[in-house]
Amino acid sequence: MERFKEYSAQIASLIIILLGWEISALIMDTRALPPASESFADLVQLIRTGDAFGPLGSTLFRTTCGFALGFVMGCSYGIAAVLSRTFDDLSKWLLQIAMFTPTLILIFLFLVIFGRTSFTVILLIGLVVLPVVGTYIRDSLRDFDEELDGMAASYKAPLRQRVFEMYLPFLIPSMLAAGRIGFTLSWKVGFLAEIFGFSNGLGWQIRTTYQIYDVAKLLAWLSLFILTLLVIEQMMRFAERRVVKW
């Protein structure tokens, strides 16, 4: 019942946004803000003809690969930072620099240095996701109960058993939460990189429609971008609830 109320509230908020968009467009009566119904018709047309799936697939591929790279590196960093105080001290400033450097600056630097390739975007996304996931995992591991670890040592529990029955169950909620945040960030970074330096993907479609001032289709592509992210996030939330049900 609670889940039904949650989904009902989310759908209601979406309907309110669309109604507000439609009413605002009718009141303003300008090409700069076409009605929601017009953009929705363009979105349906893109999906029906299959024109949406090529750019969407390109963006999903780069985003997923970059996120996977950043997630693995972030988890590795978090574990290494807890195991070695020296490593944590040496890498702390580097992590902060990567985290606080504006994303647009990183995009321009990577495109200039490494060229406009999918590998560049994957590497860029990995670098942006790494500090977010790494910080999350590091701070979570520091909250691990040391008495539990000592008890496992006193009973001479093997390392494999400790990893799969102690550390991993403890980290799974944090890993899933960091994964949701990291993927959302990956999706946005990949999208921006495509706007500034690619000839395919959702970002490129947004740039093209902006250049020809086709605002209705621009909003249709943007809606596809947002809806895809919402669907993926809901899938990740569902998986998170199933995994941490215990």
UniProtKB/TrEMBL annotation:
**The organism's place on the tree of life at top rank:** Bacteria
Q: What is this protein called?
A: Putative aliphatic sulfonates transport permease protein SsuC
Q: Where are the transmembrane segments?
A: 7-28, 60-81, 93-113, 119-137, 166-190, 210-232
What family does this chain come from, according to its entry? Belongs to the binding-protein-dependent transport system permease family.
Give UniProt keywords alphabetically. Cell membrane, Membrane, Transmembrane, Transmembrane helix, Transport
A family per Pfam: BPD_transp_1
| Membrane-related topology note | Multi-pass membrane protein
Q: Which gene encodes it?
A: ssuC_12
Record's InterPro entries?
MetI-like (IPR000515), MetI-like_sf (IPR035906)
Question: From which organism does this entry originate?
Answer: Roseisalinus antarcticus
- One GO CC annotation, please? plasma membrane
